[in-house]
Amino acid sequence: MTRTRSLPSALGRREEIIVRAAELFDSRGYHVASMEDLAAAVGVAKPTIYHYFKSKSDILYAIHEEFIDLLICQHEGRSTAQLQISVDDLLLGIMQDILQLLGTHRGHVRVFFECHRSLQGDQQVAIRAKRDAYTRTVVGLLEQGKADGRFVRDPDIAAFALFGICNWAYQWYDASGSMSTVDLANKFWQILLGGITGSTTPGVVSVP
């Protein structure tokens, strides 16, 4: 009787390929790393990789999708679990989510921010749609804070500042150092709220 691969096993192998590919693309670069290199990293024959993914671009897309889906799911889970959570805590949570991936999915982070132009046309469109939706979520929270009198700055510019301060951290953050990603998120949040002078008007937070 022919035995078929169990679903959990198949999903496990697919995820292993994604993880190893993210690490490989991070260390060697997407265009330099080959499918042979990936097969060796996973410990399988090259045809096995093609059983799960038709091309290297499809693997790149899977890395992008997994990264943005993690961020979206984290935020949605937090919003659902804590119905009374404040705008401040939701925004801080988003910053923590992005930075925590530096420790758990470092390869994904670099690939997501540096290799999106290497996606195929339809793949770029799909990922851009999710990125834009996530950005709109942050802008919406900043708009809500402004409507409540909590923030006074332009929500679109403030969103760019929030993402900019977090998204660049992968270039220099050392996960083996003494500062955790949660601590880093808190420090970034305080800078975003009060600037480098730390001067804020009580009750009104001026987000740069």
Fold and architecture overview:
The protein is mostly helical and 208 residues long. It has a domain at 57-194: Tetracycline Repressor, domain 2, CATH 1.10.357. It has helices at residues 7-28, 35-42, 46-52, 56-81, 87-104, 106-114, 121-147, 155-167, 181-194. Helix 1 crosses helix 2 (35-42), helix 1 crosses helix 6 and helix 5 (87-104) packs across helix 6. The longest helix is centred in the middle third of the chain and has 27 residues, at 121-147. The radius of gyration is 20 Å and the shape is elongated.
CATH topology of the domain at 57-194: Tetracycline Repressor, domain 2
Write down the Rg.
Answer: 20 Å
What general form does the structure show? elongated
As residue ranges, the low-confidence spans are: 1-8, 201-208
Topology:
Elements: H1 7-28, H2 35-42, H3 46-52, H4 56-81, H5 87-104, H6 106-114, H7 121-147, H8 155-167, H9 181-194
Helix pairs in contact: 1-2, 1-4, 1-6, 2-3, 4-5, 4-6, 4-7, 5-6, 5-7, 5-9, 7-8, 8-9
Quick rundown:
With 208 residues, the chain is an all-alpha fold. Helices cover 69% and strands 0% of the residues. α1 packs across α4 (56-81), α1 (7-28) packs across α6 and α7 (121-147) crosses α8.
Question: What attributes does this structure have?
Answer:
about 210 residues, mainly alpha, Tetracycline Repressor, domain 2, disordered N terminus, disordered C terminus
